[in-house]
Design goal:
Order of helices and strands: EEEHEEEHHHEHEHEEHHEEEEEEEEEE
Number of helices: 8
Number of strands: 20
Structural class: alpha+beta
CATH class of the largest domain: Alpha Beta
Largest sheet: 6 strands, mixed
Strand content: 35-45%
Helix content: 10-25%
Keywords: ATP-binding, Cell membrane, Membrane, Nucleotide-binding, Translocase, Transport
InterPro entries: AAA+_ATPase, ABC_SmlMolc_Importer, ABC_transporter-like_ATP-bd, ABC_transporter-like_CS, Mo/tungstate-bd_C_term_dom, P-loop_NTPase, PotA-like, Transp-assoc_OB_typ2
Function: Part of the ABC transporter complex PotABCD involved in spermidine/putrescine import. Responsible for energy coupling to the transport system.
Organism: Microvirga brassicacearum
Shape: elongated
CATH topology of the largest domain: Rossmann fold
Catalytic activity: ATP + H2O + polyamine-[polyamine-binding protein]Side 1 = ADP + phosphate + polyamineSide 2 + [polyamine-binding protein]Side 1
Length: about 375
């Protein structure tokens, strides 16, 4: 089904949308590159779906503009934008067969019957549903229905594909399978995908780039690795995955970073940017999986002692909560294969981490 790449660069400039006294999107600017898989990630009420609806044309911005290859499109109705759309609830016509559902956008565009036949079969082959083309939606599983919706959204070769939490109604196993399927489809067809979700794992595993939103504003965007490993704020660090926050005051500078103190304890932190001045208050985000349980043979740069208050077994890892004197509860994720033995409530543990494991973040 792949043809010459129809995708386009999309630019959003200073877009604002207000509903009554609620500012759903607040002066947001973002560029989506040709062929990119961009995920809009944020909690409920962050503005991600409103932004997607503005791109689609179902919601008009109060201020700002949207450009497709430098051409303003904010004034255009949805049908004039040539964008494919996939919704959470599939939105299939229950009385039409799979073939007829996928053919619908082409019939609306008054395409010749031979072309419709060819393109529908190619689209269904792409989502591996050619053997189901004569069935009605109610005769399909949830995953198959979502594949039909994807085929329908791509059959007319849209400029880009908009996906509004399309997998959220599926069970965990099927959701994981369709995540892989969507990524495969993206690589194969070369379309620009703009994907909305509140699921952090989904965003990390599928995206070329993640745009994290909060209260209608763009907080940070970058590759999954960049946003996860180098969060700029406490919000991003805690929303995209789980983080512990170690707060203290910079006591001195060292060759590649600084030493910060909390109470009587001292910790070494490598600096990935400008070194904060001595005497400044800082917050360090430390991921649970970057903390080890120190043994007698270990020599980590930083150590902290506490007592286990919670622990859970997740097959590949133990997830612990260790209560510490100065930082309160610290979450730790330890691989089970080298944990030695199961932790016990009340057990005293020595936690360790490298000076490069944490990331200085701004309070937010």
């Amino acid at each position: 089904m792949r043809t010459a790449d129809p995708s386009r660069n999309l630019s959003i400039e200073n877009a604002t949308k207000v509903f009554g006294s609620f500012k759903a999107v607040d002066d947001l600017s973002l560029t989506v590159q040709r062929g990119e898989f961009l995920t809009l990630l944020g909690p409920s009420g962050s503005g991600k779906t409103t932004l997607l609806m503005m791109i689609a044309g179902f919601v008009q911005p109060d201020r700002g503009n949207i450009f497709l290859d430098s051409r303003p499109i904010a004034h255009l109705p949805p049908e004039a934008r040539n964008f494919g759309m996939v919704f959470q609830g599939y939105a299939l016509f229950p009385h039409l067969t799979v073939f007829e559902n996928v053919a619908f956008p082409l019939k609306v565009r008054k395409k010749p019957r031979a072309e419709i036949e060819e393109k529908v079969k190619a689209a269904l082959d792409l989502v591996q549903l050619t053997t189901q083309m004569d069935r009605l939606p109610r005769q399909l599983s949830g995953g198959q229905q979502q594949r039909v919706a994807l085929a329908r959204a791509m059959v007319f070769t849209p400029h880009l594909l908009l996906l509004d939490e399309p997998l959220s109604a599926l069970d965990k196993k099927l959701r994981a399978e369709l995540q892989e399927e969507l990524k495969r489809l993206h690589r194969k067809v070369g379309l620009t995908f703009i994907y909305v979700t509140h699921d952090q794992d989904e965003a990390l595993s599928m995206s070329d780039r993640i745009a994290v939103m909060r209260d209608g504003r763009l907080i940070q965007h970058g590759s999954p690795t960049e946003v996860y490993e180098q969060p700029r704020t406490t919000f991003v660090a805690d929303f995209l995955g789980k983080s512990n926050f170690l707060r203290g005051r910079v006591e001195s500078h060292v060759a590649d970073g600084f030493i910060f103190a909390n109470g009587q304890e001292r910790f070494t932190q490598s600096a990935r940017g400008p070194v904060p001045p001595v005497g400044s208050d800082i917050a360090i985000a430390l991921r649970p999986e970057k903390i080890s349980i120190s043994g007698s043979g270990d020599n980590p740069a930083n150590t902290l002692t506490g007592k286990v208050t919670e622990w859970n077994y997740f097959g590949s890892e133990f997830r612990l909560v260790v209560e510490t004197q100065n930082f309160g509860p610290i979450a730790v994720a330890v691989p089970t294969w080298n944990a030695g033995s199961s932790p016990a409530i009340g057990q005293t543990l020595s936690l360790g981490w490298d000076s490069r494991a944490g990331m200085q973040v701004a309070e937010s």
